[in-house]
Amino acid sequence: MSDPLTAYRVAEPPYYRPVADEVALFEAAYSVRMPMMLKGPTGCGKTRFVEHMAWRLHRPLITVACNEDMTASDLVGRFLLDASGTRWQDGPLALAARHGAICYLDEVVEARQDTTVVIHPLTDSRRVLPLEKKGELVRAHPDFQIVISYNPGYQSLMKDLKPSTKQRFGALDFDYPEAAVETEIVVHETGVGEDVAGRLVGVGERARNLKGHGLDEGISTRMLIHAGRLIAQGVAAPAACRVALVRPITDDPDMRDALDAAVATFF
Length: 267
What we know:
The protein is of the alpha/beta class. It is built from 11 helices and 9 strands. The longest helix has 15 residues, at 194-208. The protein starts with 21 loop residues before the first helix and ends with a helix.
């Protein structure tokens, strides 16, 4: 019988540069199957961290990009019609729980609260998932773990996790790395030299200082990597920064001028 999780196994080691003790803490949490919550700004490495840990722990990783249209059935499963009649198809959460994968719910606050409550029975001592439409109670595989992430910077009264959900998880805080570490990451991921990577990081730091002063979010490490990859392909650095850093993050003419000026300072 084929392995239903073959497609979810992380074959190659994803590059992740630890910045503190997050790897050891996650390994300890996994050893007791503690549900984990990763909190930090967009593009700071949360998803890459989960991929790295799944590879490190030799566990398949099933990732769900949460959105406001996602229903509980999208997570747990549903009956489908085919030529033979109806058949049940596990959703990603049920698949992970049944067969022992890490289930990663990315940007979980984007999902409706009435959807996310379906994870509650899996995040306490019960470790079960009721499939009400099917009349089945899935007992989580011993290797199953659930991980969620979200960006606290976008929290509001309408988009936040219930305390009853938050208190079921251990939490790790993520942020953009310090300049030397971020430069190292950009060099590794793009192939540009350390000098160019350091200049890109300098632009990123200038932009992050504008968060709350015209920018909702700063330039992420992911965006710096995009710019570096363009430069590595021969695109002039100012043009690469306009395309990958300045234009995506704001449409405000004054803010674009300020960011273009930051780029000109470094390039």
